[in-house]
Amino acid sequence: MDTVSIVGVGMTPFGKFADRSLRDLGTAAIAEALTDAGVAEGDIDLVVHANAAGGLLTGQEMTRGQVVVSGTALAGTPLVNVENACASSSTALHLAAAAILAGMYRTVLVVGNEKMSGRGTRAVLDALATAADVDRIEEFNRELTGRTDGAESFFMEVYAQETRDYMARSGATAADFASIAAKNSGHAALNPHAQYRTRRTPDEVLASRLIADPLTMLMCSPVADGAAALVLRATDDTGSPDAVRVRASVVRTGIPGGGGQTLERRTAEAAYEQAGFGPEELDVVELHDAASPNELILYEELGLCPPGDGPKLARSGATALGGDLPVNTSGGLVSKGHPVGATGAAQLVELVTQLRGRAGARQVSGARRALAENAGGYSHPEAAACAVTILSVD
Questions:
Q1: Which among 86, 220, 305, 386 is annotated as catalytic?
Q2: What residue numbers bound the domain in which 26 lies?
Q3: What letter does residue 205 receive in the DSSP assignment?
Q4: pTM
Q5: Distance from C-alpha of 301 to C-alpha of 166, rounded to nearest angstrom
Q6: In Å, what is the CA distance from 282 to each residue of 33, 285, 349?
Q7: Is 305 a catalytic residue?
Q8: What is the CATH classification number for the domain harbouring 233?
Q9: Which of 288, 338, 380, 386 is catalytic?
Q10: pLDDT tens digits, residue range 252-273?
């Protein structure tokens, strides 16, 4: 796929904003993306609005996108609401690109938007747990924790189990995961949109409160509010030197009981085939580190290193700024923040910024090809959804 391009991007800072609603966040990101693209609201043919938990956390169960744009000139524009757990806004981009390729629309606006704060942490964790089969939650909790009365964080228990399994087969240590978290905190310190901009040391990460063994608090993504937006057009119509091509957009669904190869590997391999090049040609990567060990595990699943070499790659320094393949230059989900419906779009904003050469102190020199991996939900033992998007400026 090389006939669709991203011509404009915008995003809010990520954090907890008591005075900003879902509408406020979305319209701010939209305005910035339209300005960046040099298009007016009236030029947009379709809006694809992604949100994961607005019904449970804001009370707006339906028509969230329509409410967000209701006070703007986008009111009345065809609009589709998308929910696909944490992969919602990457899925929205996938649908937007497909609509353009089908010839149905010329210019499409993608919005990823989430308001998570305000109802308390317990409400957020309970909402996130509904990204698994709610009829099987007691069964899943029993497998993960030995009890049925729930966990402090269902998904952190899932990630902790995946991490323990990975440690057993790879030799990775808690110190490796702490180093990943510390690396990404350094990247986030350079990102004005990041929720947390304090550099952490591996020792600080290890010393923070234990959430689900071996995950400590500073290895876990936080509750966050935020929005990100993208303007897409057919590549032949862009007329913009800042256009970044969508070389691949693949969305796959998890298989209960597992599907042989992992969901992430299946999705990535399909994306590489679509793009016409493999991981060895990537310059920068954003991946879904909802917990820090996920990054190291995904090095292998995305083909960034051979199976079993994730710890070796992490220890080499190659995935830090200045290394051969910087990963999560935005700070990743743990430090940049993880407003779930906005995360995929925010990953793409970071990569577009990198490929345009405008990332400032976190710029990857000569970046021309980039990959984003965004996953969400739980289908036991896989994620429920995974999206891999590959971008380029060549």
A1: 86
A2: 4-118+225-243
A3: H
A4: 0.97
A5: 12
A6: 25, 7, 17
A7: no
A8: 3.40.47.10
A9: 338
A10: 999 998 877 899 999 999 999 9
